[in-house]
Structures are given as structure tokens and as C-alpha cells.
Amino acid sequence: MKLVDLMIELVMLLQILEDGLPIVLVAVFTVIVAANAVWCALVMLLPLKQTVLVENLIDLIFDLLIAVGYPMILVCYCLSAFKFDRAKLMINQAVFPQGWLEQSASTIADPVQTVVIYKTLNSLRISSIFNFFTRMGINITLWLKCQRLMNLMENPRRQSSSVYPRHCRLAASSLVAFAIFVIIYVEESTRTSAVACHPHPECVINARRWLMLDSLTQCPCLALIDNNIAPKTYSEWMDPKDITAKVAHLATMGLLQIVQLTNRKLEVLPEELRGCTDMRYLSLVYTHTQTLPVWAKELKQLEYLHVEGKMTIGLVKLPDDMFDEMSSLTTLHLGSNLALTQLPSFHGLTSLEMLVVAVSLSLLELPAFDSLYKLERLIIGIMPQLDSLPDFLPIHDLKSFVIMDRGMWCCNGS
Predict the structure, then answer these.
(1) Which regions span the lipid bilayer (predicted)?
(2) What predicted TM-score, i.e. pTM, was given to this entire model?
(3) Which single residue of 184, 195, 214, 238 has CA 20 to 30 Å from 229?
(4) CATH of span 228-413
């Protein structure tokens, strides 16, 4: 049973390293796993009274730390680490009209802090079959140990034999070696991945992997954020820094899940992004992007897509079948794409909750809302060529509908 426990905990630790969680949380989980192994070794070597009861009680405590204690520590960390200017948000909500981007809390919050908290809390979700079995495994072992401890307390005579072999130096040494290996592996994974990502300050979260010397040029980046929200000169605004090569390099390992760029030139998405099949968040604001590649539809795990152009340059065309398989997309924001005349079908957007289409002066019509069953917020702004709206009948739970600058679809524009 203890071997199964340690293997499940090791798998969970590896997942925490892959998720790039803050080093404090990594250290806490590492200490729990290593202490669990060392405790077993001590039980084997030390003469303890009521050994069976003590063994089961301590085992239960360690399982509770993994299944209940650690998630609570994780949530407490997020609550203490997240700082937000609520007074500024209240001012924005009072000053800016309903539907403006400035009313959103995400425009005020520190993007790096937001992404770290998002990734940290997201690690609590059961997001894969493998993750499901590890969580179920730790909970099943916890339940079995609770049952065993209750039976021992009800019938003390069952405490006659120890769960672990007594005075077995080989087994105890193996457990101590396991604890040392776990600590060294975590330390080296943290150190070598930090070395690989040091030249790339835009990578705000990276997977913690033990990289060999020949791999130290490849940063296992999970989140790339490069925002220039206050250009100091006119040339910085009109001709921003080209970040295409940087994005391509950080996407080489296929691990990128979050890309957020503001006022950085990325005219074409590099081919390397195609391999980032676990991409969840893509925000391209003032990036001079005129089109998205035909393979963009392969980003099936995408949950958030924001593409905003400038008055001088923006999206011109999107692939016709781009949204056909994006069933995970919950937010779609397209703004200031003045030359865009047509949007792809919304047929695949069955999970879409928020749709924003604004300042699209050439857009003639919106696709049918037939699949937007879960749409809750709809914002349409400054679309003078739009002469009608799709049927709202398929939308079951629309909570907010904001229109800015009436167009031909309403009252002949008057």
C-alpha cells in the first residue's frame, strides 16, 4: 500500500512540475512526499509501541495532507498573492459606458499575476483521464486507510503485527534514497529550466524539467506575455518591436498554453505554434496581424481568443472553417478590424459564453447563432454595414446584450 501511495504522490509531483506552479507550492509538495518516505523508514528501524496504530494514523495524516491539506494551501496562496486595485475598477465602471473593455477587471489586473493564479487554480481541476486516475487513486487509498484505522480502534487486538517490515535496513535505505532522489530531481528540474528560460523574460511560466546540457537552449515555456501598454513614441506605436522569432523559439517545444501580446508585431503566426495543441489563451492586441493561418482550427483546446487591430491595420480575413472544432472556446473578442468583411461560421462554438465584435466597419453580416446555446454576453459596436442581426432563438441564457452606435439594422440607422 505504501509503495502505491508513494508512486501516486510522485506522479502528482511530476504533474505539478509540468504545470509550472510557483516554487513555494512545489517545495511544500516535495517536503510532504519526502517526509512520507522518511517516516516509513523510521518506523522500520525504531522500536515504537502500538506500532500498527501509529503507522496507520501517520499514514492517514500524510494522505490527508495530499488530498485535502495541499489544495487548501494552494487556495490560500492564491488569495494572499493576488493583489487587485478594486478602487480603480469602481472608477472605471462609473466612468466608462457599459460594454467598454475598460469596465473589465482583466484590463486592470496584473497580467502576469493573473496568469500565475489561473494556472495554479486550474491545477486543481481534473483535466485529463490520467489526472482523474491519480486523484481517484489518492482518494481511494485515503478511504482504505480510514477504514483500517477505524477497525484498529474498534478492535485493538488487530494491532499485533506491523504493516511494514521491522528492522529491514535495505527497505529503509531504499525509502531514504527515494526521498533524496525526489529532492534532487525537483531542485535540478527547477534550476536547469530556470537557466534555459533566463534569456526569455517574456516567458512568465515554464514547466520545471531536468534539462541536459544540450537542451538548455530550449525553454519549456507555458505562458508568454509581452505587453507594451504605454508606447513612449509615435514610432513605437506605428512600428512596434517584431516578436515573431521570439514566439517561434518559445513555441518550439510545443508546450505554450498562453500567449498574450500587446503592441508587438506578429504579422503571421509562426508555424511552430501549430505544435502547441494545448493552447488555451491567445490574445493579439495591436500586433499588425492581418490573417490567421488555415491550421488555426487545429487549436481545439482554445478557450479565449482576442484579436484586436489598429485603425490602420487589422484582420482582413479568417479561415472559413476556423471555428468548426473549437468547442472549448468560451470567449471570442474581435475588435478594430476595419477591413474584415466576413466572419467564419459559429457552428462549432458550442461553449461560447462571451462574444464581442466591435469597430468592424466593413463587416456585412454576423454568422448564425444556431450553436451558441451557452452565450451569456453579446457586445456589438460600431458596425455601420450591418443591416440585420441573426435569430436569437437558439440562445437560452443571454444575460447581457450591449449595442454601441446603432447601424443600418436598427431604424435605418437613424
Answers:
(1) 20-48, 60-82, 167-186
(2) 0.88
(3) 195
(4) 3.80.10.10
